[in-house]
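Below is one record:
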Amino acid sequence: MVHPRFIVPSVISIIALCIGLSSIKFAINNQFDLSVLCVTAAATLDAIDGRIARLIKGTSKFGAELDSLIDFINFGVAPAIVVYFWSLKSFLKQIMKNGEKIFSLAFLHRLQPVYFYSH
């Protein structure tokens, strides 16, 4: 049986992974404030799990590899997806604003009377 001192840091890391994946879900749902909060919470838990593992002498090769994988997801993938959806939202908003102007000008141009002079 595995000693609990090896399991506790890994469980904290898994909780951090769940929070990081929740930040992606919140970004997809356009809840960017919650998404940034989740990334911050995942960073806090990442700092805590390493300290706890060293404090209770619960470090292991598996724990180090698991922590590296979770760090990649929480600090590489999740923030990139959050920024992507945030920029996509603002890009679509700009298209909507400018599209309204373009279509309005095109409509006004169509309403101008056209005069044909025949000589």
Q: What stands out?
A: The chain has three helices and no strands. The two ends are 102 Å apart (CA to CA). Residues 53 and 59 are 5 Å apart (CA to CA). The mean pLDDT is 85.
